[in-house]
Amino acid sequence: MIMTKTKIIDIHIHGINGYDTRTTVEDHILQIAEIMGSQGISEIIPTIFPATINVMRANLAVIKKAMELQKTEDRSQKTEAKIIGVHLEGPFLNPLKCGALNAITFIEPSEYNFKELIEGFEDIIKIITIAPEINHTAKLIKKITDMGIIVSMGHSDATYVEAEAGFHAGAKGITHIFNAMRGFHHRELGIAGFGLLNQDIYIEVIADPYHLHPQTLELIFKIKNPERIILISDSVKETTPFTKYQGVTNAHGKLLGGCMTIAESSKRLIEIGFDKDIIMKCITENPERYLIQ
């Protein structure tokens, strides 16, 4: 575990050790916070899977209650990570790049659907992942951004130009770069190429041993502005801390999520030769700057 006086922040976490955000029990969310806190994580943004609007709203309500409990109860004896908001990973995503998510739940990125989804929870939603190429999403991206919510582009088949248009509409980040998005091609760099070459947009990086090849990680850190790289866990309920790190997969071998906390993945990167100061900023200063700008 990496210990630091600076806040370690994970902006993309679905769950850990048997618990995840698909729950109606606020104690499950608090258990996630406690487990992550015990691993050295200071703050987390629980990430909600795409589902029907009613289910996602129920998940939002549970997280909001857990946040209220953290503020009102005496939890001084617990080593909890502070829950600082919610990340909605969908449902305005591209079925062609669903990854491990359920494409059946993806819906039209209309202002009506957006309002139905977030009404009453505007104060806790920090990030929404959207595929920018779906049905001229620029207007919705601008609306969300104007509300003070960060738009991250992901689960996307966007071309370079479409990703650039999303950025100019207000998108500030790219969700787990290279994973669940259009591949990099020498005649069409796609959203991944845009994320690497644009030095202003932030990119999430899953740095466990399975999601990205070591040389892909090397490419990212050689090309990308290091102040715009954010390490995330993308951990799920199947993720178990401090075990032998086996890929978290389904019966067909598809990756379901990350297998490491960001405290451990950052330690791993440092051990294999990445610059310690840069890596530490990717879990402290960079996510903090991303969230407050």
From TrEMBL:
Gene Ontology molecular function: any one: N-acetylglucosamine-6-phosphate deacetylase activity
Signal peptide: none
GO biological process: N-acetylglucosamine catabolic process
Keyword Transcription recorded: no
Taxonomic superkingdom: Bacteria
Keyword entries, A-Z: Hydrolase
Family classification: Belongs to the metallo-dependent hydrolases superfamily. NagA family.
Protein name: N-acetylglucosamine-6-phosphate deacetylase
